[in-house]
Design goal:
The chain is mainly alpha-helical. The protein contains 5 helices and 2 strands; from the N terminus they run αβαααβα.
Length: 178
């Protein structure tokens, strides 16, 4: 029987195997010693939502869309205050029945004002969220694009501290404004 399996192989092949084994042995520590550095980027998302042209256009659009309703709410609040002040001034001279009726009317008016303000705020907030979602969706695609171009391993959106050299917010803003 064969005691050494390499002895039966041709000399050239056994030499090649020996060199390959030696190369693998030497390469393993070198690969372990080589430190791979990860590249990261950072994006201030709030700046994207406030400083971009897209965000400013959305704000202008919302202002135009809700200005009439806001004016109506403000008028309703002013009317309620005026009615309340008038009631406070005249309450002492009113009869019990009349005072109770006007107090109930004032209470109902107050509830209407509060409902109108709440609905206005809810609708405005919903539209703001929709506009911000559109900006975020476009910005996310741009962040992916920049990350691939610059070969970044990660892009962070929240951190305690960020070095200016990893901040890619301005690049994203420029792309978002195109």
């Amino acid at each position: 029987m064969l005691k050494n399996p390499l002895s039966s192989l041709p000399n050239a092949l056994s030499g090649a195997l020996a060199l390959a084994a030696l190369a693998a042995t030497l390469a393993a520590p070198a690969a372990q010693a080589q430190v791979t550095t990860s590249r990261i980027g950072f994006v201030y998302t709030e700046r994207l939502m406030t400083d971009s042209k897209m965000a400013k256009n959305a704000d202008a659009k919302l202002t135009a869309e809700f200005s009439k309703r806001q004016k109506a709410v403000e008028e309703m609040v002013a009317k309620f205050k005026q009615t309340s002040e008038k009631f406070d001034a005249e309450a002492a001279g009113l009869g019990e029945l009349d005072r109770t009726r006007r107090a109930r009317e004032l209470y109902n008016m107050q509830k209407d004002v509060e409902r109108m303000q709440r609905e206005f705020q809810e609708d405005l907030q919903q539209r703001k969220n929709e506009e911000r979602a559109a900006i975020a969706q476009k910005a996310y695609k741009l962040v992916e694009q920049v990350a691939e171009q610059e070969k970044l391993d990660a892009v962070l959106v929240e951190a305690a501290w960020v070095s200016p050299r990893v901040d890619i917010t301005d690049k994203i803003l420029k792309l978002l404004d195109k």
